[in-house]
C-alpha cells in the first residue's frame, strides 16, 4: 500500500514502553525481548520487562528524549498495545512512515518482517496475525552506523535513531487500490498518463478516475494482474506553479475500493541549458534543509516543525527546496507543495558508500523505489537526486547509471540528477568534468570557493566551463560562521559573519557570468548538529554553515541571499 491518506486507519503514535539494549542482547533466545515474557508461576524468573521502564514518544528520535541517549547508537525495543475489532471482509496493514535505521517488527510474539533504511516508508500485512481485542506490537530499532549501510559509517549530520515518523494500523477491503500514478504526460501537457493497480482476489474490476472540479471522468478496467493503464485528454486545467500552487481533488474508484487525494499537474523538463516548468524557463532559487529542529536538538517530526522550516525558506525568497540528504517526511513534501515550493528529493547515497559491495545494488534500488513510490504524484517534486558527493570509479559509475535508468523506468515525468563535487581548477577557470553529467538531466555541483577551495586570482572572476549542454544547479555553496562573531573578518578560520557574507557576495557576482546556470542552493538554511565538527570554540559538534543560527537568528549572509533571490533573480 503506497497511499494511506484518507484510508480508514488508527494512529499508533504516542508513548511507547521501551527497553534500552546497548549490547544488542534482546534478540537471543535467552533474553528474547520480543516475546515479552511474564512470570506465570512462583518459580518463573524473567530478567526483562517493558512495564515500569522508560517511555519514548512516537514519532520522535530517541536521542533527544533521554539525556543518556544523546549519542546512543545501538538497539532499543519499543512496545505498544492496541485493540482491534476484526471483520472478515477487511485486511489490516501496519504502516511505518520511517524508522532509523534497521527495524524488526513483532506482533503478538511472532516476527512479521524487517526493514533496512532510515527515511522511507514500509509496511506489513497483519490480517491473519491480529487478534480480536488486545494486540501487542514490539519493534526493535537499531541506528548503529554500518559500513554497508546507506549512508555508510561517516556522514555530516546527526544520527538520530528511533521510530522517527508515524505508525498506523490501516484497514482496506479484501481487494483494494494498491497504487496509482496520475500525472501529465512528459511530452504532452494535455494528456494524463499513469496507471491504477489493485491487490486482492478480485483483480479484474471497472476503474473510474474523477476530477469533480473539472468535470473529468475516465473509465477503464484492470487486467487479470489487477493493473489498468491510464491515458486520457486533460485540457482545461490550471497548472501548478510556485505562484499558484493549484491542487485538484482526484478520486480513484474501483468496484471494491475508492480513494481520493489532492494532486497538482505540471510539466518539468530540460531544453538545452534551460529548465522548463510548464514550458517556460525558470531559475531555481533554493535552500538546503536538513530534517532537524535545531532549537530542540531533535529530528523534525510534526507539522509545526515542517512549517517553521518551510516558512524560513519562503521568507528567504526561495521557489524550491533541496531536502537533504535523505527523503524527508511525506508531510513536509505535501506542505511544500501547498506553499508553492518545488522540491528536490535525495537518496542518502553519500560519501564513503562502498559501491563494490554486492548487496549495495539491492539496497539502493529498494530506497529509490520506496522514495518514488511515495511521492510520484507530488507536483512539487521536480528532481530525484541519486547521490551526493560520490567519486568517480567504475563501480560508482555503473551503480549510478543503473539507478538513473531505474528512476526513469519508474517515473519519466521528473528530472534526475546527482550532486557531484569533483571539478578541476586551472587559474581562474573551473571545469565541470564528472562524466556522469552526460547522463544526468541537469548538472548539480557542490562547490565551496572561499571555504574549502581558495578563490582564484583576486583580479579575475571564475569562469565555469562545461562540455555538457545541460543546465547547471549549484546544489551547495557557502561557508561557516558563528552568529554574532565579527572578529578578524579576513580569515576563514575566524568563523566570522563578515567573512561568510563576503563569500556570498562573491558567489552571486560569479553567478551572473555563467550563461548555463539555472539554479542556486546555498548550504544551508540553519546550523545543524554534526558530531564530527569538533572545533571547541566555534563548532562544538555543530555545522555552522546555516544562514540562520541554531536559535533561528539571521546571519549577515541571510540578507545577502534574500536580496539576491527577491530582487535580482526574478
UniProtKB/TrEMBL annotation:
Q: Name one GO biological process term.
A: carbohydrate metabolic process
- Name of the protein: Beta-glucuronidase
Which species does the entry assign this protein to?
Answer: Sphingobacterium puteale
Query: What is an example of a GO molecular function annotated in this UniProt entry?
Result: beta-glucuronidase activity
Outline the extent of the Glycosyl hydrolases family 2 sugar binding domain: 65-173
Q: Name the InterPro entries on file.
A: Beta-gal/glucu_dom_sf (IPR036156), Galactose-bd-like_sf (IPR008979), GH (IPR017853), Glyco_hydro_2 (IPR006101), Glyco_hydro_2_cat (IPR006103), Glyco_hydro_2_N (IPR006104), Ig-like_fold (IPR013783), Ig-like_GH2 (IPR006102)
Highest taxon listed in the record's lineage: Bacteria
Q: Which family does it belong to?
A: Belongs to the glycosyl hydrolase 2 family.
The EC number(s) given in the record are: 3.2.1.31
User: Which keywords does UniProt give here?
Assistant: Glycosidase, Hydrolase
Q: What class of enzyme is it?
A: hydrolase
Glycoside hydrolase family 2 catalytic domain location: 268-491
Which residue ranges does the record assign to the Glycoside hydrolase family 2 immunoglobulin-like beta-sandwich domain?
175-266
The taxonomy runs: Bacteria, Pseudomonadati, Bacteroidota, Sphingobacteriia, Sphingobacteriales
Q: Does the keyword Transmembrane apply?
A: no
Amino acid at each position: 500500500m503506497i497511499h494511506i491518506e484518507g484510508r480508514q486507519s488508527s494512529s499508533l503514535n504516542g508513548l511507547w514502553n521501551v527497553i534500552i539494549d546497548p549490547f544488542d542482547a534482546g534478540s537471543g533466545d535467552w533474553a528474547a525481548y520480543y516475546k515479552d515474557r511474564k512470570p506465570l508461576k512462583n518459580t518463573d524468573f524473567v530478567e526483562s520487562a517493558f512495564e515500569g521502564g522508560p517511555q519514548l514518544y512516537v514519532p520522535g528520535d530517541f536521542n533527544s528524549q533521554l539525556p543518556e541517549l544523546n549519542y546512543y547508537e545501538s538497539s532499543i525495543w519499543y512496545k505498544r498495545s492496541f485493540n482491534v475489532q476484526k471483520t472478515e471482509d477487511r485486511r489490516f496493514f501496519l504502516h511505518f512512515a520511517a524508522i532509523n535505521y534497521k527495524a524488526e517488527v513483532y506482533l503478538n510474539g511472532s516476527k512479521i518482517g524487517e526493514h533496512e533504511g532510515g527515511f522511507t516508508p514500509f509496511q506489513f500485512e497483519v490480517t491473519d496475525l491480529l487478534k480480536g481485542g488486545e494486540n501487542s506490537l514490539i519493534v526493535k530499532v537499531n541506528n548503529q552506523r554500518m559500513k554497508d549501510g546507506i549512508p555508510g559509517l561517516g556522514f555530516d549530520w546527526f544520527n538520530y535513531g528511533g521510530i522517527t515518523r508515524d505508525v498506523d494500523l490501516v484497514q482496506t477491503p479484501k481487494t483494494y487500490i494498491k497504487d496509482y500514478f496520475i500525472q501529465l504526460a512528459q511530452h504532452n501537457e494535455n494528456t494524463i498518463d499513469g496507471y491504477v493497480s489493485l491487490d486482492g482476489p478480485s483483480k479484474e474490476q471497472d476503474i473510474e478516475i474523477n476530477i469533480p472540479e473539472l468535470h473529468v471522468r475516465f473509465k477503464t478496467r484492470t487486467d487479470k494482474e489487477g493493473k489498468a493503464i491510464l491515458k486520457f485528454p486533460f485540457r482545461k486545467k490550471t497548472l501548478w506553479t510556485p505562484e499558484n500552487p493549484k491542487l485538484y481533488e482526484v478520486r480513484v474508484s474501483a468496484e471494491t475500493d475508492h480513494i481520493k487525494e489532492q494532486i497538482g499537474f505540471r510539466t518539468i523538463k530540460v531544453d538545452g541549458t534551460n529548465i522548463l516548468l510548464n514550458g517556460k524557463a525558470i531559475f531555481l532559487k533554493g535552500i538546503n534543509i536538513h530534517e532537524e529542529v535545531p532549537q530542540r536538538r531533535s529530528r523534525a517530526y510534526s507539522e509545526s516543525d515542517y512549517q517553521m522550516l518551510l516558512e524560513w525558506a519562503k521568507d528567504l525568497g526561495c521557489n524550491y527546496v533541496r531536502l537533504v540528504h535523505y527523503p524527508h517526511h511525506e508531510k513536509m513534501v505535501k506542505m511544500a507543495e501547498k506553499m508553492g515550493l518545488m522540491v528536490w528529493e535525495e537518496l542518502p547515497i553519500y560519501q564513503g558508500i562502498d559501491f563494490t559491495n554486492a548487496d549495495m545494488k539491492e539496497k539502493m534500488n529498494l530506497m529509490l523505489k520506496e522514495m518514488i513510490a511515495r511521492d510520484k504524484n507530488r507536483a512539487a517534486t521536480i528532481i530525484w537526486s541519486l547521490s551526493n558527493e560520490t567519486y568517480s570509479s567504475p563501480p560508482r559509475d555503473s551503480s549510478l547509471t543503473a539507478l538513473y535508468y531505474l528512476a526513469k523506468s519508474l517515473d519519466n515525468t521528473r528530472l534526475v540528477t546527482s550532486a557531484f563535487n569533483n571539478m578541476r581548477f586551472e587559474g581562474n577557470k573551473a571545469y565541470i568534468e564528472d562524466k556522469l553529467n552526460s547522463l544526468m538531466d541537469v548538472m548539480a555541483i557542490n562547490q565551496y570557493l572561499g571555504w574549502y577551495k581558495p578563490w582564484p586570482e583576486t583580479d579575475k572572476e571564475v569562469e565555469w566551463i562545461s562540455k555538457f549542454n545541460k543546465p547547471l544547479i549549484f546544489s551547495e555553496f557557502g561557508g561557516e560562521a558563528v552568529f554574532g562573531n565579527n572578529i578578524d573578518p579576513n580569515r576563514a578560520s575566524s568563523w566570522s559573519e563578515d567573512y561568510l557574507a563576503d563569500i556570498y557576495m562573491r558567489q552571486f557576482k560569479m553567478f551572473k557570468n555563467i550563461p548555463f546556470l539555472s539554479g542556486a542552493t546555498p548550504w544551508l538554511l540553519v546550523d545543524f548538529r554534526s558530531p564530527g565538527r569538533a572545533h571547541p570554540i566555534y563548532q562544538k559538534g555543530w555545522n555552522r554553515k546555516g544562514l540562520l543560527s541554531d536559535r533561528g537568528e539571521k546571519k549577515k549572509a541571510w540578507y545577502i541571499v534574500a536580496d539576491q533571490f527577491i530582487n535580482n533573480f526574478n
